[in-house]
Amino acid sequence: MERKKIYNSLKNIISEKRIVFDESLLEKYYSDESGNRFSFPLLVCHPENEEEIVELIKFSNKEKIPVIPRGRGTGLSGGAIPLYPSIIISTELMDKIIEVDRENFMVTTQPGIITGDLKREVESLELFYPPDPASLDSCSIGGNVAENSGGPSAVKYGTTKDYVKGLKIVTPIGEILKFGGKVRKDATGYNMKDIFIGSEGTLGFITEITFSLLPLPKYSIDLLLAFERIDEASNAVVKIIHSGVFPQTIEFMEKRALEAAKNFLGNQMASQKGEAQLLLRIDGYDREIVDKSIEKIDFISSKLRCVDILVAEDKNFQEKIWKARRSLHDAMVMMSVKREREDVVVPINSLSELIKNLHLLEEKYKIPIITFGHAGDGNVHINILKLKEDDKNFEKNIENVLSEIMEISVKLGGKLSGEHGIGIYKRKYMKLVFSEKEIEIQRNIKKLLDPDNIFNPDKIFL
Ligand SMILES: Cc1cc2nc3c(=O)[nH]c(=O)nc-3n(C[C@H](O)[C@H](O)[C@H](O)COP(=O)(O)OP(=O)(O)OC[C@H]3O[C@@H](n4cnc5c(N)ncnc54)[C@H](O)[C@@H]3O)c2cc1C
């Protein structure tokens, strides 16, 4: 069907003001933050409610035109990128909180709200929605559910899936389903809502989400620990968790990441010491327990070769010690002409083994590999850098480097992605993790919901 004809048909479903047809305005919908393009969006629809989504999806089904749900386009695995000429359905206008239920500690929301806005809104009521992806001020909560996003606080508080209690979904053929609700326990039938969490926009359009909340912690203290050796930093992670202290975050930066941050920040670094640093946040409702946790961490660190400890309680100093970690994305961009980012996850006691193997890969292929990330949950961000435009070695070897990283992670008992998802780029590695049968079962679930394969087709599985 011609683009103009599609446009004319869709005008019967939603106001033409909310359909993007002009090719120059479609630019930003070609890709997500991974930056690659594959095909073009036919047009973009901005529905305001679930009924419009149902009709848009029914139309796509009738005409067999691929349809792609899109939040704010910050994804890193290509989930929102059209692989074929497609209709994009954006949630940008569906950004309202439907209800904050203070008695039940629940919030129900539309999918398009920016995650940080939702967090701030509930915090103003002394309530806490813990998941904190680094992109929280630009991504949507629906995108977070579709990717099962997490952030530094996953060590203590878990990821998005741990808070989703209810979901409303429009299926790929335009039916409305509702799973879960405002209950903290639910043993009624299959745990269906979890199939949609992390399904990367391939099984249905999430139109409403109910999240559980916590009371807002009163105290929050940060620690920066610098270690003489990388394995001692990862040893410390295991020992701290075993001691019964549950930090909200345990972030890891190896020396090369610290050097990159220093080049970016100049003399604004709180500490440059050590082969590796850990950044911890201890939070809680009881000051005495928070103080005792800090004493325990201090004791554990003193038994290892910890060369610097900084404790930050006031906001300014906290900002200062987090600055290096927060600057790493920009620091990597500044020092390279191109980079590949991986977010494999391994059991926490395999972290130093993973990093050792990455250093060997770096030597083998002569490509800089810099790691940092969420040490407390074994999810490491691996940055493979191309430093110069004319560096042919990078292009020649990058595919081998990526494959070896996936193999190493799986061998260590890990997985391909901790938070960014499979999308387009990691489909070819799924066989490392799943047997033929395990893949077939997942494909059959997709087929059952999307018999004509028009809903975000060919993502996750090749
Ligand atoms: C600088 C930076 C830092 C980041 N840090 C983190 C981090 O710390 N942790 C982390 O987990 N991720 C991180 N990300 C990745 C990204 O922000 C998350 O994956 C986020 O959840 C994507 O949300 P979005 O609204 O931008 O979704 P999009 O990119 O628009 O879409 C992502 C996927 O979700 C699907 N989708 C979106 N909305 C819906 C819906 N309503 N129904 C069904 N499917 C839907 C899309 O089809 C697509 O497959 C980071 C990204 C950047 C650029």
From TrEMBL:
Keyword annotations of the record: FAD, Flavoprotein, Oxidoreductase
InterPro entries in the record: FAD-bd_oxidored_4_C (IPR004113), FAD-bd_PCMH (IPR016166), FAD-bd_PCMH-like_sf (IPR036318), FAD-bd_PCMH_sub2 (IPR016169), FAD-linked_Oxase-like_C (IPR016164), FAD-linked_OxidoTrans_Type4 (IPR051914), Oxid_FAD_bind_N (IPR006094), Vanillyl_alc_oxidase_C-sub2 (IPR016171)
Protein name: FAD-binding PCMH-type domain-containing protein
Regions annotated as coiled coil: none
Cofactor: FAD
A GO MF label: oxidoreductase activity
Any Pfam family: FAD-oxidase_C
Keyword Oxidoreductase appears in the UniProt entry: yes
Residue intervals of the FAD-binding PCMH-type domain: 37-216
